[in-house]
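COMPLEX REQUEST
Ligand: iron/sulfur cluster
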Amino acid sequence: MAKDTKTAEYPVIWLQGAGCTGCSVSILNSVSPSISNVLIDEVVPGKHVSMRFHATIMAGSGEVALKVLPDTKKELTGKYILIVEGAIPTADNGVYCELGDKTLLEVFKDMAKDALAVIAIGQCAAFGGIPAAEPNPTGCKGVMHVLKHNNIKVPVINVPGCPVHPDWFVGTVASIMLGGLDIEVDDLARPKLFYGGLIHENCPRRPDFDKGKFAEKIGDEGCLYELGCKGPYTSADCPERQFNSGINWCIKNGSPCHGCVEPEFPDKFSPLYKKIKVKE
Ligand code: SF4
Ligand code: SF4
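STATUS: Structure written out below.
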């Protein structure tokens, strides 16, 4: 779709912290819309994402690329969306993750202060994730924790997942473009549109759970609860949406849900393949 002069631009700065870049990879594989639609065309009619900084996909590098950050802050104060992928290392003043000659912690705080909103993409940015697992030597934290600790007030939307589903990200951005920041979120700041229902309620193996038919080992038919499934404690639309363009998802593939969209993942949901008592 060609952009015309009436197209509204949504400038985006995407920072990457402690993580595996899996959420970027997941989003780059978005099918409908495709990633080229997201980055080049209009995500919704008349609205265009202007990706100004993303270390994995941008052509620029070095000082030229880094200059985009202060330039955006200066030119577009209060108008850009700051997306964070990965946890933020906070131990020893954040020295364990750097961007140019600054720590990510420093850059994040600086950019968050003047952003329109912050979107935490993936489990690590939302809640700390695997980088924050015990013993967490780098002091990794999620976005909201760092903002609260530094008394920075900016709207935050959490879009967790390990990795995030491309639809959860694109759908959240499209919702903001259409209706502004006032989208319906739960008490963990996750859009209810995607995180509104328990996996356990919509699971195709739920009839087995109700009948008491439980798998004893991976590969067995039956409910995966005895093998550590965290579906009863996890809210996401994986059963209906599925991954890889609706082809498959964890439980359909025979793996218990590990609760990758919840703040309890991974420490409080471990051991992942054992039944544990949580949230009861
Ligand atoms: S496999 Fe998991 S989500 Fe599905 S019914 Fe069993 S416990 Fe619930
Ligand atoms: S089924 Fe569970 S572990 Fe798998 S993607 Fe969904 S929330 Fe994450």
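REMARKS: The longest helix spans residues 166-179. The radius of gyration is 19 Å.
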